[in-house]
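Re-run with default settings, no changes from the original entry. Doing this only to confirm the output is reproducible before filing.
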Amino acid sequence: MQLTSKQINHIHDSVLSSYRAQGRSFPRRNTSYPYHILVSEIMLQQTQAVRVVEKYTRFVSILPTLQDLAVVDRTTLLSLRSWLWFNKRWLNLQKCAQAILTQHQWIIPTDPHILITLPWIGPYTSHSIPIFAYNADIVTVDINITRVYHYRLRYFGIIDETTTLYPKDIRTIAYHCRLPWQSRLRHNALMDFGAQVATAKKVWITAPKQKPFSWSIREVRGYILKYLTKQKKQPLTLDHVQHSFPHHDCQAILHTMVAEGLIWYKEWEYFV
């Protein structure tokens, strides 16, 4: 699917003018420090930007460098969780920092093909990190950007409301519409346009929503880690958890957390 130069310029003009008029302001946009970009991009996975601000600021103030993250003890790291369902994410983020130390001499890679081999780095994040940290002349696509292109292609009459473009189609269009060496600016503008103008209500494309936290498995996992990181040397028993959450298979939840490396088990007790 090819767009004309006039159509591409129209997309650029509308997106950038909207960004200049009402672009959102987040702490992560005030820096290109690769470590801070790495942390923010991991936090932003399936999470709205406005919900990350406070947690991102707190995290990088306590662990301001990649070295700090790589060497912090697991109990302290788990106690810094931004939300109760981020526990495994923090451990993988630390593994990512340690891999960068041992394999890349403390330098966060610029190549998406290398980044994607690191823990918790997927196709989107492997491209977003070089874009926002290094202004790399590449493209990435999230749900907001996807809505922008659907919105504009419908405006041009290229597709109608019954058409859903595949990710490959969106990436191809994004590549042809890129602004050389203005990658950081353009992606911020596209994301804001998708969040503010080409909204889910208008385009009918929505991101998957988190299930309710209350009475969920995430609530049980969060309780377990909150207890263990605050009590520190005081272990937890299955009976204790089962008494607090009789509606769940707490033994299965505990066993999963052990398998994931979040907690340890010895002689009928669980600890971090």
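The chain has a mean pLDDT of 87. The CA atoms of residues 221 and 254 lie 8 Å apart.
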